[in-house]
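#lab-general

N.A. 3:47 PM
ok so I finally got the sequence cleaned up, no stray characters, all 174 residues accounted for. can someone with queue access submit it? mine expired

B.Y. 3:52 PM
send it over

N.A. 3:53 PM
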Amino acid sequence: MKTSTPCGPAAPAPVPVDVLYRDHQPWLFRWLRGKLGSPFRAEDLAQDVFVRVMAGRKQVHAAQARPFLRTIAHGLLLDHYRRASLEQAYLDYLAALPEPQQPSAELRAVVVQQITALDRMLAGLPDRVRQAFVLAQVDGLGYAEIAERLGVSLSSVQQYMTRALAACYACLEE
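B.Y. 4:20 PM
back already:
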C-alpha cells in the first residue's frame, strides 16, 4: 500500500515584521547611508521602509526579505531625490529674485510642501493623464496639440485634464 506524499516542500513561513526589522534594519541602514551619505536621512528612510511594510501587510519570506526591502527603499530614494530636486529648483528660482520680492521663510516652507504634495499627486496619476497635464501646464500646448502628440481624441484630453485639475485642487485643499 502506498502512502501519500506531499506534492512538494512546504512553503516557507512569512517573517514577522519585528523579526524582519531586527534582522535587516542594520543592513538596510548601511545601504541607505551609502546611497545618501547622511546617517540621519538614512535612518529616516529605513524607518519609512518598515512603515511601508507594516502598512502594506504583505507577507515576506526570509529568502525575499532583502530584495523586497531594497525595492521599497529604492522607491523611497527616488521620491527623496525628486523632492530634493524640486526644492532646489524652487530655491534657485527664489535666489534669482530681487531682494524685495523674496518670500518669507514661512511662505517658502509652505510652497515647498505644496510642490512636494503636487509632485506626489502627479506621480499617482495614470500616465496619459500626467502626460496631458504636463504638456498643457509646462509645455504650454493646447488640447488639440496634446491630442495629436498623445494619439488620442480631443475629448480624451479634456477628460484627462479634468481629472488632473481635480486632483490638483484636491491636493491643495488638504
